[in-house]
DNA sequence: AAGGAACACAACCGCGCTACA
DNA sequence: CTGTAGCGCGGTTGTGTTCCT
């Protein structure tokens, strides 16, 4: 099973990296890209394994890394994200541009955990410690599993997406001839960084990237109401575009080839501070909009109404679930 | 000033997943 | 179908630094 072959090789350096090694690796990747990591050390003239090179690059040498202490806003965001995602550090890091999973993990273990305990909050459950103690005494047979395997809100959402809108505090449903359908999130830090909003003929919602990673080349097949996520069937608009004119900003990347974390690092919407990140509005093309108007849309009737009625949640969850499954299979 | 404790962070380890021959 | 290589992730360990007695 996936053991790195170089792990067995001898004569490879381990431990801290010297400035000379850093320079060699940096020069090599800057000039040639990393390509296959296992070949990097040889090509760069390093006595390291590829895995070690990869780690060094990702956690230390990458030029887009943000240096320095975490801001209170970042710490708050990490706490909120941890409540949703658990110890999925890479996913948390993907929402904090310039920060690495390792960095966040270290911060969590050395700093945030302690702060939460001081505030009387259990860092694993995010509940008041008194409540957690009570749970422990009442459910002696049910030992709580470690945080990494305990169900997070995200897992809960995957099973019961009807809670999605409630959890993320989706507030309003909007319809606009230029933007199509969109859901306005509330102003919580979590919602402010929800990366994408989607709409199709009969569904609308905000999608947390983990479930429905924005990979626009993926076609949403099931209901055939649109090829919304086909590369030709959507367009992007971002904070630079006003809602009325909706001038479009198309990322000049090959999204097909790009993972979300890379994408988020490279788009103008996400490469700033988290405070500045805003949802990307995905707008359909004119042709699509023309079709939309002919489709019975359960949401268009709910314009400017809260989304939290059971009926809304039910329809929404079914569509969302279908979409998540579709994406899950495609990713 | 010395030494031990606590802390912060870099790096490693082991596992799961995926692609590919 | 199966074994192997490579990648990525989360958990853990190691090491340097700071703080405290």
From TrEMBL:
<keyword id="KW-0804">Transcription</keyword>
<keyword id="KW-0539">Nucleus</keyword>
<dbReference type="Pfam" id="PF00249">
    <property type="entry name" value="Myb_DNA-binding"/>
</dbReference>
<feature type="domain" description="HTH myb-type">
    <location>
        <begin position="62"/>
        <end position="116"/>
    </location>
</feature>
<feature type="domain" description="Myb-like">
    <location>
        <begin position="62"/>
        <end position="112"/>
    </location>
</feature>
<keyword id="KW-0805">Transcription regulation</keyword>
<dbReference type="GO" id="GO:0003677">
    <property type="term" value="F:DNA binding"/>
</dbReference>
<dbReference type="InterPro" id="IPR051953">
    <property type="entry name" value="Plant_SW-associated_TFs"/>
</dbReference>
<protein>
    <submittedName>
        <fullName>(rape) hypothetical protein</fullName>
    </submittedName>
</protein>
<dbReference type="InterPro" id="IPR009057">
    <property type="entry name" value="Homeodomain-like_sf"/>
</dbReference>
<dbReference type="InterPro" id="IPR017930">
    <property type="entry name" value="Myb_dom"/>
</dbReference>
<dbReference type="InterPro" id="IPR001005">
    <property type="entry name" value="SANT/Myb"/>
</dbReference>
<keyword id="KW-0677">Repeat</keyword>
<feature type="compositionally biased region" description="Basic and acidic residues">
    <location>
        <begin position="124"/>
        <end position="137"/>
    </location>
</feature>
<dbReference type="GO" id="GO:0005634">
    <property type="term" value="C:nucleus"/>
</dbReference>
<keyword id="KW-0238">DNA-binding</keyword>
<feature type="region of interest" description="Disordered">
    <location>
        <begin position="115"/>
        <end position="156"/>
    </location>
</feature>
<feature type="compositionally biased region" description="Low complexity">
    <location>
        <begin position="138"/>
        <end position="153"/>
    </location>
</feature>
<feature type="domain" description="HTH myb-type">
    <location>
        <begin position="9"/>
        <end position="61"/>
    </location>
</feature>
<feature type="domain" description="Myb-like">
    <location>
        <begin position="9"/>
        <end position="61"/>
    </location>
</feature>
């Amino acid at each position: 099973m996936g053991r790195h072959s170089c792990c067995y090789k001898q004569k490879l350096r381990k431990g801290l990296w010297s400035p000379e090694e850093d320079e060699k690796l940096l020069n090599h990747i800057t000039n040639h890209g990393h390509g296959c990591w296992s070949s990097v050390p040889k090509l760069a003239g390093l006595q390291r394994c590829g895995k070690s090179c990869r780690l060094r690059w990702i956690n230390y040498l990458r030029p887009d890394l943000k240096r320095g202490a975490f801001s209170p806003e970042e710490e708050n965001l990490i706490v909120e994200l941890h409540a949703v995602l658990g110890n999925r550090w890479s996913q948390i890091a993907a929402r904090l541009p310039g920060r690495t999973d390792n960095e966040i993990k270290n911060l969590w273990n050395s700093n945030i955990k302690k702060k939460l305990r001081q505030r009387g909050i259990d860092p694993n459950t995010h509940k008041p410690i008194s409540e957690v103690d009570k749970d422990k005494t009442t459910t002696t047979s049910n030992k709580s599993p470690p945080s990494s395997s305990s169900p997070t809100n995200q897992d809960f959402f995957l099973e019961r997406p009807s809670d999605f809108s409630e959890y993320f505090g989706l507030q309003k449903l909007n319809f606009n001839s230029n933007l199509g359908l969109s859901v306005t999130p509330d102003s919580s830090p979590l919602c402010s960084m929800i990366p994408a909003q989607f709409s199709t003929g009969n569904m609308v919602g905000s999608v947390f990237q983990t479930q429905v990673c924005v990979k626009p080349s993926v076609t949403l097949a099931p209901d055939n109401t649109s090829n919304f996520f086909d590369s030709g069937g959507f367009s992007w608009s971002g904070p630079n575009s006003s809602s009325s004119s909706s001038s479009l900003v198309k990322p000049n990347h090959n999204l097909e080839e790009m993972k979300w974390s890379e994408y988020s690092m490279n788009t103008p919407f996400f490469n700033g501070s988290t405070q500045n990140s805003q949802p990307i509005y995905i707008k359909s093309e004119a042709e699509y909009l023309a079709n939309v108007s002919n489709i019975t849309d359960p949401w268009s009737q709910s314009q400017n109404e809260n989304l939290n009625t059971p009926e809304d949640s039910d329809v929404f969850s079914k569509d969302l679930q279908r979409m998540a499954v579709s994406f899950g299979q495609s990713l």
